[in-house]
Amino acid sequence: MDLYDAIKKRYACRSYDSKPIEKEKLDRVIEAARLAPSAKNLQDWRFVIVTDEKIRKEVASACNEQTFIATAPAIIVGCSNSDYKMRCGLPISSIDVAIAMEHIALAATAEGLASCWIGSFYPEKLKPVLDIPERVEIIEVMPIGYPADKETHRPRESVEKIVCYDKWQL
Ligand SMILES: Cc1cc2nc3c(=O)[nH]c(=O)nc-3n(C[C@H](O)[C@H](O)[C@H](O)COP(=O)(O)O)c2cc1C
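Above: query sequence and flavin mononucleotide SMILES. Below: predicted holo structure tokens.
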């Protein structure tokens, strides 16, 4: 699938078919994350892929009881090992992991799968479920699988509202 088609097709899927994801597909999706850029090429991201049904339900529970998450055959939990800050003052952890997670979302779409970004989770509940050490930061949770809902495209702001040229005019 063309990149722009994947960007247009991706949507937040909130119901999944129980059909497992073929190993080759999941491997290609993970490879898309591995190839993502990162500050100083540190690649300090780590991904826990949850397929076990009992653990998926526990993950969904730690995500503010968003039970639809457990319907996905795989849940990818994006974590960061890094406390490095860029010169601009921003920590790289959430930026680097977010880039890799969106690679995952777009690659999943290209594979005929669907996904959903999940930021509503309680790290203190989720870490023990997955044996994630205290020093590691959980950045994002992403269920992926074959969609069981209707592909839905939510509205976006116009280019005029979000973009200006040369100087701030917004
Ligand atoms: C950082 C982030 C956190 C999000 N957290 C959640 C979440 O916890 N639960 C959920 O159902 N959707 C979540 N979403 C999905 C957004 O609601 C969704 O992307 C947005 O409404 C636009 O819809 P679309 O993805 O279908 O284009 C999150 C999206 C992002 C980018």
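The longest helix spans residues 92-110.
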